Amino acid sequence: MGFPDTACITFRLSRSVYRPLFELVWGRGSFDISFPADTEQICATPGGAAAFHGDTTPVNLSPADRTRSNDVYDHWAQSLNAYEGSTQVTAFSSKFDAFLAGNYTMTPIERQGYNLFRGKANCNSCHLDGRGTALTPGQSDNSMAAQVNPLFTCFGSANEGLPLNPRDAIYYQTTPDYLGFIGNPFGFGFRDLGMGTFLRSGPGSWPNPNASWRRFAPLTDGQMQVSSARNVAMTPPRCPTTEAPGPYFQKEFFHNGYIKSLKQLVHFYNTRDKQGVCVQRYFRTLSGWNDRKSKLLADARGAEQYRYDHR
Q1: From CA 272, how far away is CA 276, in angstroms rounded?
Q2: What angle separates helix 291-301 from helix 262-271, to the nearest 10 degrees?
Q3: CB 3.0-4.6 Å disulfide test: which of 29, 230, 235, 254 passes with 239?
Q4: What is the pLDDT, as a whole number, of residue 307?
């Protein structure tokens, strides 16, 4: 969120319309905290702790109030975690979930796509599906399902070698706002180094709590957290496809949104290590598209929640 202090979360919650619901769950008196008069000004200051010379607790609270604020912050995180793990958000009702439970038989093209996903394409090494990986031709995966509700991510980090996305707003935030804050003074010279940026306490990241980690930054430059592949093919009801440019909806993929469709995504992976240069343009649908890409897309659609309900 860019707040300079975790107490800013507590402060905003204390003034939210759902404060009574929070207190209903976590107890009345959760917000019995004496916030200083300048709390709103501090919390509205962009730039995080860097704007306060690295001070991560610029909201001046008493020790007792700081403890209460930390409790509220922890309870807020627990509430979010409970909601994200609820059936309203995480239904695990896709065809693939039914397949793992033994309640669905894949179509031939879905099966071939899944074999690619966990085989030659090596997708499930990062987008974990609870099953084994069979990379060697002729190798059979006889593993049992280790997880019946896989999240299709390892929560690790990887550098995928994506080009810059010139449509990202960060490249145009080069002038000061009314507080004098400049989101990106480097313009198109800015490089989001992901994990490497965090380890260096770089722009947009929270101060690294362990300075000894900085030496690992060059080894992790460009690494971004692996996204979940669940629901990756879903679109709004009126939009039958994720293909660019629409007509109604433009979906974006990867951390910077450079890729605009599943076909472009698979094409990128299929050619990334063979092309000499990544051209800064949309990948066009090529006449050389083969069955493998279509099969992978069929497998991706099988991991969509709510498209198939086996209950």
Answers
A1: 8
A2: 130
A3: 235
A4: 44
